[in-house]
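Support case: magnesium ion complex. Customer-provided input:
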Amino acid sequence: MAGVKLEGVAKHFKGAVAVAEFNLDIKDGEFLVLVGPSGCGKSTTLRMVAGLEEPTYGRIMIGNKDVTKLEPKDRDIAMVFQDYALYPHMNVYHNLAFGLKLRKMPKNEIEERVKMAAEILSISHLLERYPRQLSGGQRQRVALGRAIVRNPQVFLMDEPLSNLDAKLRVQMRAELVKLQRRLKTTTIYVTHDQTEAMTMGDRIVVMKDGYIQQVGTPEEIYHEPANLFVADFVGSPSMNFLEGELCTEEGCIWFKAQGIRVNLRNSLNLEELNENKVVLGIRPEDIYLHRPSPEKVCEELLCQTELIEDLGSEKIVFLKIEGQELQARLRDGAAPVTVGGNTPAYLNLNKVHLFRKSTGKKILFRGR
Amino acid sequence: MRKYWPLSFFILPGLLMYVIFFVFPAISALGLSLTDWNGITPERNFVGLANYKEMLTNDPIFAQTFGNNIKYMLFVVFFQTLFSLIFAMMLVKNSRMNVFYRALFFLPTIIASISVAFIWIFVYDPSIGSLNTFLTKLKLDFLIQSWLGDKNIAIYSIAVVQCWAHIGQVMVIFIAGLQSIPKSLYEVARIEGATPWQTFRHVTWPLLAPSATIVVAYTTLQSFKAFDLILAMTDGGPSYATEILSLFLYHQAFNNYKFGYASATAVIFMLIVASITLLQFRILRANKVSY
Ligand SMILES: Nc1ncnc2c1ncn2[C@@H]1O[C@H](COP(=O)(O)OP(=O)(O)OP(=O)(O)O)[C@@H](O)[C@H]1O
Ligand SMILES: [Mg+2]
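Agent response - structure generated as follows:
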């Protein structure tokens, strides 16, 4: 078993920058998820770890070994591809055994390993079948099986679930996590789906335009987003944003926009900030429509109700205030509102985030 | 379907052509092959299977022709497939250079075979031909041959021309086949540590099987149908060394005026081509690959 370390890794394609700079220390046995919008350089990063692309700059270590210049086969990694990449002319058994045969493993050991992997993935009854005779989920398992028979130091997975239908994806998601817990193999998992990232990763790396935006546990990423991009990318429905300015009045910091005044009840040195245009962010579940209990410090805003989406277990209420939009997520009971009417909305001030308008960077203003 | 039956009239013109120029001649060839018609006089006598018997048991030239045709076919199929595959693998990436080279290799395909024949007659000319001149320049005089005059090598000299003229065409089929193999399969092989030869043996070749079957079927047919090239280069000579079936039946009909006999050859020829094609399509179906 081994960790993976990337030091100043970058990849340029004929002048176009796919990965600008990547520094990360992945711990032994960790399940690390790379997430970000299309084209942000996730696959490129993964392929550099695999050795399928050579980094333009930087160094990659697996365990204590510098593998930057090594061929993929010498890195002791296994990769699972989005399209499964099974050999159509080989049955499941031979697909699983292919890599072992190339490594000249004795026949009985190959058989043993294939059997074992097939059992773990419950595909023992499929060994004689060809890939075209399998369903999407079964193919996915075979692709995973091919990775685990080799018992490598690191699993690399590039959107392995994205070709499955929604229901199967959720099921395989859980199975994959269980499998990883059981094998304790360091795993780097690429996805563009933030739900997958949040539910699977021990840690998440959020990327955009070739740069790491934030590294953290799902909790940190969700509750302490480092910038506007991360705040917006993670969570569904995503965080609400109000644009406005900060100013000091009566010894307190206020957030002001047209027709909106929020007393942040906090001391923040505005001079240090040297700009006062900000974006206030708050997650839909931190906006209440019922009057909350007094220990929750809230600010009341009068909004119009535009639309109510009923998802069964929860309701999303679309609100409007002075041309800016807010969504509130209600967990329990009926919404105390009717569409088209006015309603007070209570913003939980302990859950409010502030970001600079210019750079999107988070402004620390709470003593949490 | 029934209420669309008037639509079937639309295939009539095509069907008519097919019947007049293919079905009718084929059937009449079958009938003529049982006669001793000379192709000119109206007189013809029914001789039963005598033509077939003569051809298959008592005609050393037919036997030689058949042998030539097999040699020609094996040579063309083997080398044309091999080299077009090698070129396809070299030119599979869509770079600007490769597109240029592909066009270059394809060029001979669009030249009429008669022109190809005349070009190569000059190349092969024993005294002034560029091939022998070239060999002399390289001090390889011992390789100098009468390329089309030596009855041991003439058939292969022509087979080389046939390959030259069609490699570009076949290469295109292989390039299409190669490009349809997903890249990730090669990446898996690379991660698993396959050598270039193992990658070819276990990934490229099996997945190319459908293209290869098409290529072999097509090339086989081409080598049986080769006619104009040989007619223009050697007309079957020297002493029948380059006579193949298509040429043989032409000579029987139009040089020897044995139309009945030529028809019998045509029937045999048709049977051979049909059975080879059928066999290959059987194999093709067994080899189907799907991703
Ligand atoms: N071989 C290549 N040649 C040139 N540019 C490339 C190459 N591979 C990737 N890129 C570019 O690098 C950038 C990052 O690509 P990458 O495949 O890593 O994105 P990604 O985050 O995996 O996106 P997706 O979610 O769509 O898979 C993209 O802008 C892409 O166009
Ligand atoms: Mg990708």
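The pocket of magnesium ion (ligand 2) is lined by residues A 42-43, 158 (CB under 6 Å).

Case will auto-close in a few days if no follow-up is received.
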